[in-house]
Description:
Blueprint: H1 5-31, H2 33-39, H3 46-62, H4 64-78, H5 80-100, H6 104-107, H7 110-138, H8 146-174, H9 177-182, H10 187-203, H11 210-217, H12 225-231, H13 233-267, H14 273-287, H15 289-301, H16 303-327, E1 342-349, E2 353-363, E3 369-379, E4 394-400, H17 403-424, H18 427-433, H19 440-456, H20 459-472, H21 484-500
Antiparallel strand pairs: 1-2, 2-3, 3-4
Helix pairs in contact: 1-5, 1-7, 1-8, 1-10, 2-3, 3-7, 3-19, 3-20, 4-5, 4-7, 4-19, 5-7, 5-10, 7-8, 7-19, 8-14, 8-15, 8-18, 12-13, 13-14, 13-16, 13-17, 13-19, 13-21, 14-17, 15-16, 15-17, 16-17, 16-21
Amino acid sequence: MHNSNKTLWKVIGASSLGTLIEWYDFFIFGSLSIVLSTKFFPADNPTAAFLSTLATFAAGFVVRPFGALFFGRLGDLIGRKYTFMVTLMLMGGATFLIGCTPSYESIGFLAPLIVLLLRLLQGLALGGEYGGAATYVAEHSPEGQRGYWTSWIQTTATFGLFISLVVILLTRLLLTEAQFDEWGWRVPFVLSIFMVYVSYLIRKNMDESPEFKRAKSEGKTAKNPLRESFGNTYNLKFVLLALFGAAMGQGVVWYTGQFYSMSFMKTVMFLDTDQADLILGIALLFGTPFFVVFGRLSDRLGRKWVMLAGMLLAILTYRPIYEAMYQLTNVSRKTEQIDSREQVTETKPTEAGTVIETTTILHYTDGTEVKHIDTSMQVNEGRASNDESQLKPSRKTIVLIAGLNYVYLVVLIFIQIIYITLVYGPIAAFLVEIFPVKIRYTSMSLPYHVGNGIFGGLLPAVSTYLATNAQLHGEPDFYLAGLWYPIGVAAVCFAIGAIYISKSMTANSKNS
């Protein structure tokens, strides 16, 4: 006898709030990666510092499968509820401590080491959280409606990123640039401890899932979930198919649309940070309801082709989409309003000399505004600077777009969010349905977190490397080279999924 819709909404509300907070905690690191690279890594090589930050960001993804194994085993042994209570507290604590960690200037190499360890704890926690929440909701849902009900959990990842962007934007607006740079960037991390506490109070009153309680009362829980999940050849076949035929492609589509797009806007298009965050936030806000739309659609049409449609669209259109994005800030194709050019010079005295900062503002007929900030240093006579990098002139470019260009960029990001909702909306129900109750938490968590944590999580670092390498070799469209990684992975996944995923896979979930 299934629970009423009222009870289901309570289950989803409690599960979703905790999962949303965990995703928020996990994503503020990525959303603030450019700022964090200046705080926890040596400042003398900004590119190396940024790449190190991306690697630390990726480390949290790489360790997620280990969290899936550890907490998945606990979830199948002692229950769904208590396991994802532990993951919630672990995630919240690690995020709070990142916000409290002293900078590289204060404690040297201990700073990136501490942040790396805390990032690994975040990854372990998330590895256990998602499988627990998805399984918990699915096991409360009526048959034939799992796609719809579990899709609400799917919204939490994107909404968690949206909330992280909103909190960062509000913090920037309420503080001066100097205050945000000095200590304000810590605020989004520290705030999470309060949100975790609220979620804990809500979750502690939840009941265990009915399917797990029934399996436990009948003595049908697994004695060794790891061995029964991966030592059993029959079940291992489903684990591998779930990974290479669904989760792997879903992972790269998810991270391309939400993280690669953000990095591309800021580091390739040179879009103003706040404007890039706002554009992504708007696209996420309009796109998020489609998780539920495609989750419900998968109940009617089946999970397979809804997910594979998202992958195929991504494979075919990623390069044209990113080419269109790039051209929106490509001033070589724009007409400048020469009479409107502005230039401001500021001098800032330091112990070694005077820093000269010249800002040149260019206006274009389509409403685009480009700021070139040139910084140089005039060393005091008879005194040398210990930091050679201070002597080198540097240029920072910031682009602001307006009007139709702004709307067009929102649409281009929104299209990528739609691809995400196609692949991600149905996947929780798909994974839950192909594994039996007694090993479900363990079996579904591993392919999900390998697909997302490794194939998806490595995307920013791998794509940045591919684009940088293409630029060094003088390729004219170097800015598109990073897309070969998600396109290639999604293409392999589409082929495997199209050939091998079948409706009969759900029969495995009937086998105890």
